[in-house]
Amino acid sequence: MNKRIDLLGRGKMSNESFINLSMLVVLIVAFVLASICIPRYFSMDIVLNLLANNWYIVILGIGVTFLLITGNFDMSVGGIIAMSGALSAYFCQTQQEGFSELATGLGMDYGVSVVLALLGSLAIGAINAFFIARLKVASIIVTLGTMSIARGVAEVINQGAQRSAGLPDIYGVVGNWTLFGPIKIAVVIALVLVLLALFVEKKTTFGRRTYLIGANQEAARLSGIKVERHITLLYLLSSLLAGITGIILASESRAAISTRGEGFEFNALVVTLLGGTSINGGFGSVAGTVVGALILGVIASAATSLLLRPEWQFILKGVVTFFAILAQRYALDKRNA
Amino acid sequence: MSKDKVNNMENKGIAPNRRRFTSRHIIKNVYVYAILILVVLVLSLLKGEMFQRGNFLFWDNITNVLRLSVPILIISGGFTLIMISGNIDLSVGSILSLTTVVYAILVRDGFGFVAAFFLTAALGVVLGFINGWLVMKMRITPVIATLITMNVYQGVARYLVPEGVSAIKSDDLHKMPEWIGEFARNEVIPGTGLSWALIMTIVIIVLLVIVQRFTVLGKYVAAVGGNRTAAELSGINAVKVVWGVYVLLGVLSALSGVARGSYLTIGEPYTGAGTETQAIIAVLLGGTAFTGGEGSVIKSVIGALIIACLTLGLKSVIAPYWQSLAIGVVLVLAVALNHVLSKEKLAAE
Predict the structure, then answer these.
(1) Please, what are the domains in chain A?
(2) Does pTM top 0.95 for this prediction?
């Protein structure tokens, strides 16, 4: 009896820290395995590249993690990435006679066009929120629709191709602002956002309410939490983060491409699940999502180094996610039994 | 006192016989047919060069639309059952792609039609079985489980197509036999435009309607979707029922893969992309509740016809890059319509 009380007491870490820690161990094991199996894998470059190549999935993961904690999906993030890139390009392209249609835009200031592009992203988030929070429609169905709408807007603006001509020089600045080595300003933005998200998650009532809604929506509503407003805010947040990601990615390649971000919604979901966030019970953390993104990064780069065909990444991603879900559930069951 | 009470009940329309005749109920029953007629009428008014022989309602054009939409017609029928059971299967498009590729490989490597047909169907059983296993045995949320298999099946389909080639087709070693297109393209009765694939589609739809309406299985599926605990307490094995529906949907997707492979005469690994979204639209237009428990196969098939007419009609009217936006808008509208028409149920609860 005493022992049991002891276990529940201070000496024991929370389930969340336990999962985070074990996924960190998985990350280290995966990295060590890759370093052993692949010659010249273990280097500073690889570590820096892991950060440089996965920042966008981390930013997307923040919004998706919060939503998944409340039991909702957001499949529209990939489409929003393409849309915000296309909108920001269209608004700031020069207005000149004689240019082809894809090289002429509205000729606005870059700052204004970024704000407008983010507003467009928020509009998609607002559609999601209206149907999911107000009308209580299954989130997967609505966000599949808005995914199609957002990507469709990008395709219509780009006329199925891409906008790369007639862009002002400032368009390419944000995405290519290099600090050192392969590390660009986007990595710093991602880090700041993660720290902010961790603060919100752990230290604010907003964060704790998110968990409560996920654990028991009805109880949350009865204890005075405005569930509708909360989920609305989370969808707006997720689409805003996707919009920011889209603008940075478009800036990085100095072009708005309509296929940008295809499949990112699945990647964001995979890293969130790898990080231990559970769909059925107000459980998870942005810290886990970051670890999940790094695990996926190690696996992807190892697969590329082993000269596997790119198709393997689809299969690997699915299989890894499946085992991660099962292993985490098994570990938690054992621990709490 | 008691008389007042009776009056009250009648005013609120609680008497079950009366509710059948409210205007909303009638609209709910016929609107999907009305939309189909409206879409066809509008498309027929857009006469001109875009349709074969100048008119959407020309018989050749109708059979052409039907032939192209065999997969969505078959899949949306099965998709209805999975939605009624309160689950979802996002992997149908990937199963369609994978089975198209596998069918093309089998045919190219010298299997006869019957062998290739049944081997592909068997693959569908396996793929559906895996979905059901993940959802019902491993208890992974349906959305996540089928998103995983969606990506894995898509990956396998792309992996089976050799590097540097876009689809399974005749190459130096093997030659695709001439008869691969017969199943979906040749007319069974000359002059009607009916192919074997279309006849198979009609038979499958009729069977699905019978299963849903007149068999115990249909009742079980609705019971599980309506209230799983109650269904299990009354002796229904929910695991077996839903697992069975997943297997059924796998087989149906595989059969549509055979039809698609035969129609294209090549094994295209991307051919099924977006089918899950189209199936969801069809089922929602058909009035199936997204919470499960009720729905109708025949209305979903009508919904699938609407989608087929719209996509093919739009393709000939506007530039292809509008397609994605149009699909998204139609899906959101279908969700809204579905919500408005199911309000009655929400109010009653």
Answers:
(1) 19-33+43-336 (1.10.3470)
(2) no
